[in-house]
Amino acid sequence: MLRTPPLDAFGLDTARLESTRPGDADSIGNGNWHLWTRDGEHHILRRYHVLRTESDLTFEAQVLDHLTARGWSVPAQLGPPVRFEDRLWAVTRYVPGRPHQDETAAQRAERGELLARLHADLAGLDLGRREGFFQAADLDAMGEFQDWARGVELLRGQRPSLADRASRAMDRAKQLVADRELLDLPQTIVHGDFASWNLHFDERGRFAGVIDFDLCHPDSRAWEFVIARVHRAPEMIDGYQRTAQDPLSERELAAIESLQVVLRVLMVMAELWNGQRAGRFDEAAIGRQLTKARS
Q: Which class is 7-93 in CATH?
């Protein structure tokens, strides 16, 4: 049974809660519930990832407030977070609509156009570093934060050959970062997961809003495209380039391929972090990411 903070702590007269998806109640990740007040207002009750702190949520809130002021429909917080049972909760704005189920080529290009608009509206917003976040290509910092070395050693006790593959993949990714100077790419605030499922459209297919800024932080635009799954939506780049006031440079475009390798190593890192807490590693998931890191 879901246990929530006393809902009057948010200053709302709540009539009903309804889950947005199964499994959120027991997840260490973000959870979201539809919330309706007695006067008919529709909001979202959000429980944040176990790693989130008041400080880094302030960063996210400032990004969302900034975009709201520029006319974006985004899940801005309606008030400060509340801590309950060692997790942070907040009520956020409801973003209507739903994602495209199967993006067409034109819709993938539209996603690139929308990303260009988002980056333009975030350009010049300087909030400093977000606590607990690093450039994706800063594999030393990311590894220290998520206990990469300990995870590899624990994996070695379960499957030595897989641990060796993980170590080799990390070495290769670090060499790519150094050779391609990926840490020196221009920085902006990125959404961090500008995938199709985070963009909402109305029944007529008109853009309605964007959700899930959980991973927003300063990073490169090239990384934004990698985490937006540009390998499955190459039309995004065309839409971005023809819309952006400041199109991607040749250097940024060239960095995408190397950052794809970085992504796979980070996915392995996430599996190791989860496995350390679960007490056992998902060897199949780790193996899949390592195979993709070689391709």
A: alpha beta
